[in-house]
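Comment thread on ticket #2218

A.B. wrote:
> Attaching the input chain for the structure job we discussed in standup.
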Amino acid sequence: MSTLTIAIVVVFVCGYLCIALESLTKINKAAIALLMCVFCWTLLMMGPGAYYPEVAAGGVVHHISEVIEHHLGDAAGTLFFLMGAMTIVEIVDSNGGFNFVRDALKTRSKRKLMWRMAFMTFFLSAILDNLTTSIVMIMVLRKLVQSREERLIYAALIVIAANSGGAFSPIGDVTTIMLWIKGVITTQGVLSEVFIPSLISMVVPAFILQYSLKGKFDKAQNLPKAEVSQFTQKQRNIIFWLGVGGLVFVPIFKTITHLPPFMGILLVLGVLWTVTEIFHHNTSEDDTMARRVSDLLSRIDLSTIMFFLGILMAVAVLQEIGVLTAMGEGLNEVFSGNYYLINGIIGVLSSIVDNVPLVAGCMGMYPVAAEGAMAVDGIFWQLLAYCAGVGGSMLIIGSAAGVVVMGLEKITFGWYMKKITWIAFVGYLAGILCYWVERTLFF
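C.D. wrote:
> Ran it. Output below, let me know if you need it in another format.
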């Protein structure tokens, strides 16, 4: 490993430590992520010849600029998807669209509410995706729980349940979508063999976390809330189904048009925006402008978007210099043939770095075989789908769902690591054990 590579890794690790210690340094994690991104790319630019020997000396700088633009394009697609999904959910929420979801979940028992939210998040994330589901459930959670300390526990479980639910569905997580499109897993295969391990990885943490919640909510907290919109019930229902139904339609739109997912999100946002503007023409509200999409856009947490951008672009440098690939090859050599250990470690790593390049690296390193563990729906590929998805729950910045919940509820890295990481890890191991039992006894 060259000196320059070591320097880049050191900058990345130091940046991660600063993000982890945000509660101590009092420096916003978005600022650290952006600095980490710029420093890593600057170091790469200082010795590009070591990483791109095939490019002529005079064109290396231009080549790196193209590489940055390529990774920025991938990151921008994720960020626009995130912003679009957040705006759609904000529109539905601000116009009372989630009132019936709130009423369906409402209970005075804190533990009953936790289990209801856990299961709803788990199954919704398989249909929508873990990122969108997390945003929806946090919006509903804010209507039901006023205590910040208790809300953080519910929010942490939402992250775990969303990642677990996304792991058993071909459209529930970016990594499962990648594996599904590649053809190494099938819909029937992951639904039949990964569903129960994913469920276990959610149920075990929920069982542990329920002991953090005791008693019942105050009666005042469970009184019907005043309607937040002058829209009729029919109009609110239209907004809800256009919003949530539109989010479900996004993967279908991608399959039909082969356009990136963020284009589908922008389509849904455009339709929903148009419909709400039409509805506003027929209302006599004095404060109509307060609920228009143009105003709701200002509620988007840009610091979370900047943090996500910094992290994605910093990880892209590690991908460019071959660190992630070398890591995967090293795991293969050390634990040759033990796919449970290899994927188990990949899952842990996915909580530290973005699971997308990790999975992409594995897809490039391991060829699809005609039979055995590397065959379509083989042990390796199904475990990879499970571990890369569920493993992200171990750190708050280990998944897109975690990052967005971190931004919405202002959860610190340190609090999550101290209170939740070990619980998520126990659930993660329980799911792997469950998968091993399934494969040993039934398949």
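A.B. wrote:
> Thanks. Noting for the ticket: The two ends are 42 Å apart (CA to CA).
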